[in-house]
Specification:
The chain is of the alpha+beta class. It folds into two domains: 120 residues, Beta-Lactamase; 192 residues, Hypothetical protein af1432 (Orthogonal Bundle). The protein has a five-stranded antiparallel β-sheet with strand order 2-1-5-4-3, sandwiched between helices. Helix 6 crosses helix 7, helix 7 crosses helix 13 and helix 8 packs across helix 13. The chain binds fe (ii) ion (2 copies). One fe (ii) ion binds next to loops.
Amino acid sequence: MQINDLNKQESNVSSKKFLEQMIDGILVLEYPSGVIKNANDSIFFFLGIPRSAIIGKNFWELSVFAKHINIHELYKQFLQKKLLAMKNVILSLEAKNDMVVNIYGELHTFECHDSLIFLGFENKSYVNFLQNKLKQFHLNEDKLLNEKFQFLINTAIAIDSQNAKHQLNVSKLAVEIAKELNLDTLAIHRIMMSSLVHDIGKISIPKEILNKSTALRIDEILLIKNHVQTSYDILIRLLFPLDIAKVVLQHHERLDGSGYPHRLFKSEICQEAKILMVADTVESMRHSRPYRPDFNSDISLHQLEVDQYSKLPSDIVNVCTNLFRSKKFSFEHSLH
Ligand SMILES: [Fe+2]
Ligand SMILES: [Fe+2]
């Protein structure tokens, strides 16, 4: 069979396979002789040998296999079992350093033609290199994100320590609720992060309004409500992950659509925001108001269950009240 015929055969019958394996090096061997009939571009990148130097040779004659003592023997086993899989094989390249590869062999039989063996070389060194790069990228991303968080938390402490304390307490409670609900680590991380900065937008509101003991005017109420959008805008401008900003944006929504800023309904609000809204409501009840009883009483928890019935998710409220009543959660001392 001519090489051109082979190329045609490959493109017709196995083009999909070739495309899928483009990153891997592919040697096409004649069955059962093991003579190299063709190779893809990656194989030359892998081995650093020109095409003319390998076509027509038995593949185990290639110098890169010279130090691999069993390659010919393994090929014989492959011919018997029709399967070849070698993991973490070190190939000694002529011009480059050693390369760690996984080698796999597959036998393909084509109509009207001889069978061919596709011998694949998966470059483990390259995969490891990419994985390490990706890991490094994530580490740097995490470091940058943590620095931004620290900046926002420090800003909150400097401008309004009461608000900073509120955010910390909300975060403690929200994380405990999330753990009780068996949320996965990523979701718990999102809840912790979003809780810690959920009211950062309040830095734009004058303290006189935030701490006003008399009834608020309508324009003051609107200004306070706007803290949600401001929090969101700050996070977006600082390039925080969108999923964290979204939880912050939804923390004053309510299941019955009575919340703000977008009057979302139950199914439109994400789970993390539902947890945050419960923790936020409970923590806010601690701050004495003339019309509110002290939080550390059953009345407060009962009020939470009754008054917020249609507004807050009852399953999360139940978990929350159980944390206080049965598991003795307190804002001063975390459970874990
Ligand atoms: Fe808020
Ligand atoms: Fe809050």
